[in-house]
Design brief:
By secondary structure, this protein is of the alpha/beta class. Helix content is 44%, strand content 15%. Helix 3 crosses helix 4 and helix 12 packs across helix 13.
């Protein structure tokens, strides 16, 4: 923008003069304040439209105490975030909801301890109205930093605490029925006549992986410990775990992987070992990420969770809490929600088994 165009940008004083009201009245209308008679409101709005006035966000924030910005904090390095379609789907849901409410998304990633400190300082600096945080690990310092910042927060996935630790009496979160979905997947393998069913877990410092492992154990109560191998939610992790399983239990005939990416890695190893899917080994994933599940050969039977909807609901819960005047929407200790009218509660979405060619 040129200097002349910047200088000629209409001011709030010009709006007030055009509307024939005081600057204070024009400011209250522009910033959504109360106490202005409707005829004057209409005159100010007409002046804003005629002049093409755009409110100064910094000045507006002083009046409304809102920044119309939300931090999205992903507790993963950027190499993982931009390689895994799960994060793209969740961000798309968040972005759609924030955009619909004229709020900006500020993306913050964490690579290490220095990044955690940076994120904590940013949140404490009052730059955003709230935070959406997901992919937490059990030893992650972020909840404590968020608690210190006092930022209203909604979590993606069930946090690994809920008993008052880390100052979080009642964290608000959006999650899927991980345990129930895992049970359904394993029961399907059993219904196919598979008896040596293995499980590739996700990273067990995340609650989603623990819940899916628990669902596997709900069905396979007496499973051979050699039929459980830990992965890390990546294709390479699925490959490593599949090799470990086949080395220990070459007669296995079914595999439930805790996400689609690990299932795709497991499929490559099964093919390398000369095993046919599903004839020799039936394979099921979790997520139903179409860029993965429909492009494997054979296409992947998987448990569907609505990842984009999870992101949308996270943003909706946060905005609902902010609009209700809740000072601490599920933050990791920024205050209790007791007595807050309109404060949101956690949501757990159902899952469904999507049957394709791999099982």
């Amino acid at each position: 923008m040129s200097e002349s165009s910047t200088a000629s940008r209409p001011t709030l004083e010009a709006v007030a003069a055009r509307a024939g009201v005081s600057r204070a009245t024009a400011s209250r209308v522009v910033n959504g304040g109360d106490g202005v008679r409707e005829p004057l409101v209409e005159r100010v709005r007409r002046a804003v439209e005629e002049l093409g006035y755009v409110p100064n966000q910094a000045a507006r924030s002083l009046v409304t105490r809102r920044h119309d910005a939300v931090a999205v904090v992903i507790a993963e390095p950027e190499t993982r975030v931009f390689a895994d379609p799960f994060f793209a789907l969740q961000l798309r849901g968040i972005s759609k909801e924030l955009t619909a409410h004229d709020s900006q998304l500020v993306l913050l990633l964490t690579e290490g301890r220095d990044d955690h400190a940076r994120v904590g300082r940013y949140l404490a600096g009052g730059h955003v109205d709230g935070a959406l945080v997901f992919s937490l690990h059990l030893d992650d310092p972020l909840p404590g930093l968020i608690h210190g910042a006092g930022v209203p927060t909604v979590f993606g996935g069930r946090p690994g605490w809920g008993d008052g630790t880390r100052g979080a009496a009642s964290p608000v979160y959006v999650d899927s029925d991980n345990r129930g979905g895992a049970r359904e997947a394993v029961r399907h393998l059993v219904s196919l006549g598979r008896t040596r069913i293995a499980h590739i877990t996700g990273a067990l410092d995340q609650t989603s992986a623990v819940d899916r492992l628990d669902g596997f154990r709900d069905v396979m109560v007496d499973a051979d410990p050699r039929l459980i191998a830990e992965g890390d939610f990546t294709p390479a992790g699925g490959e490593r775990a599949m090799r470990q399983l086949l080395d220990g239990c070459p007669d296995l005939d079914g595999v439930f992987a805790a996400n689609d990416l690990m299932a795709s890695g497991a499929l490559r190893v099964l093919r390398e070992r000369g095993l046919r899917v599903p004839e020799d080994v039936a394979l099921i994933g979790f997520d139903d990420m179409l860029p993965v599940a429909e492009q494997t050969d054979p296409s992947l039977t998987t448990v569907r969770q609505d990842i984009e909807e999870m992101g949308r609901l996270m943003a909706r819960l946060l905005l609902r809490g902010l609009n209700a005047g809740a000072a601490a929407v599920g933050s990791a200790g920024a205050g209790s929600q007791e007595g807050l009218v309109g404060a949101p509660s956690s949501v757990v979405l159902p899952t469904t088994l999507v049957r394709r060619a791999s099982a």
